Fold this protein.
Amino acid sequence: MKPVALINTAAGRGRGISRIREFRALLDASFEQVRYEETTGVGQEGARIDAALADGCDCVLALGGDGTWSIVADHLLRTGRPGVPLGLLPAGTGNDFGKSLSITYDQRAEVVRAIAAGRRRRVDVGRVEGRHFLNVVGMGFDIAVIHDAQSVGCSRAICSTSSAPSASCFVIVASNSRSKRTARERAHRVRDGRT
């Protein structure tokens, strides 16, 4: 197996950077050769995956969290590569999908050993409007709150750390009064069906 390790340096509010040293040591000890690719923003994953697979890599390891894993899975499926194994290396904020599969940072050595041994598990994948996702999908108020927060300068990392609309709304309300008003107006439009 010749994996490419895709590293989301923004995962877990930057936790991916500190965790890569540990994962890199484990990966280097478990594989003859690993190609490392870093991403610093959404949308860079696809080109990095395509280049690595064209160069002979046959497995994608994604160091990140739920968002990174869904983006990578979506790219593999949309480009007709459902047979390429996707290894999950947990470094995100919540890692909810990983937890449901017993893939946690605390068990990182076992996770890497399982990947190196070729252990695989099929999982269900959802799709909405042509985009695949692994764990959850947000609609309506969740997305309205995140969209409004981004439009007033709230960072993506802060706004997407909680899947609960009330927690996301609290973060936005705490940031400034304009975002509070915008989120409240959007919530009323969503509730009344006037998105």
